[in-house]
Amino acid sequence: MTTIAYNLQAVRAAIAAAAASAGRAVNEINLLAVSKTFSEGAIREACQAGQICFAESYLQEALGKISSLQDLTIEWHFIGPIQSNKTRDIAANFSWVHSVDRLKIAERLSAQRPVHLPPLQLCLQVNISDEASKSGVSPRDASMLAHAIVKLPNLQLRGLMAVPKPSDEVVVQRAGFARMRELYDQLNAEGLQLDTLSMGMSHDFSAAIAEGATMVRVGSAIFGSRIYR
């Protein structure tokens, strides 16, 4: 068993334990392997260990991997900041986008999604901790944006994504995720049919699962320490 396969097994076991502790079924929670900065070889190892969903943040790096790994069955998710000049390539090459926080970006993704592909699956990125350094729509503006996006063709709004302010304290972690769950429930009460809460990373996914996460984004716990160039 490779190191990556071993790490994946450990992460899946931790997800199962967190789900059981929260009284949830483990099949309610999807694992998204965050492969940004890691090699194509590392992604191949993870695929061989049964991982299908991978997330990237840097478009040019991602496009190279997508091209080189076409022989594998991979569902690609984009989770990085989106500039207007990147929307065409994102719309054409990814199945999911988690980082939409402006109507302009959603409109461009809708217009540029190739007609032969299924609708692009979207999550709104919410700046749930109101941090100036982070992207994301404010919680108070999320409803207006969500209701505008569901009217666009070629897109399917699936849910919300957030990266709450980091903390080593589980109580603090859970508080941020609980605010996300409250917003998610509010939007569904307004008639939106959302099914995805993308929240929780390597250091806090257990707290996220306790508060209702349906998709956790895990990178370093699978691939090891990340080296930024």
What is this entry, summarized?
Helices cover 42% and strands 17% of the residues. It is an alpha/beta fold.
* Main sheet summary: 8 strands, parallel
Q: Rg from C-alpha positions?
A: 17 Å
- Report the span from N to C terminus: 29 Å
**CATH fold category name:** TIM Barrel
What order do the strands of the largest sheet run in, or round the barrel if closed?
7-6-5-4-3-2-1-8
**CATH classification, class level:** Alpha Beta
| CATH homologous superfamily descriptor | Alanine racemase
Number of strands: 8
Judged by helices, strands and strand pairing, the structural class is alpha/beta
Strand content: 15-25%
CATH architecture: Alpha-Beta Barrel
Listing every helix as H and every strand as E from the N terminus to the C terminus, the arrangement reads HEHEHEHEHEHEHEHEH
Tally of contiguous helical segments: 9
Indicate the overall shape.
Answer: globular
Low-confidence stretches: none
What's the number of structural domains? 1
Q: Average pLDDT across residues?
A: 96
**Amount of helix:** 40-55%
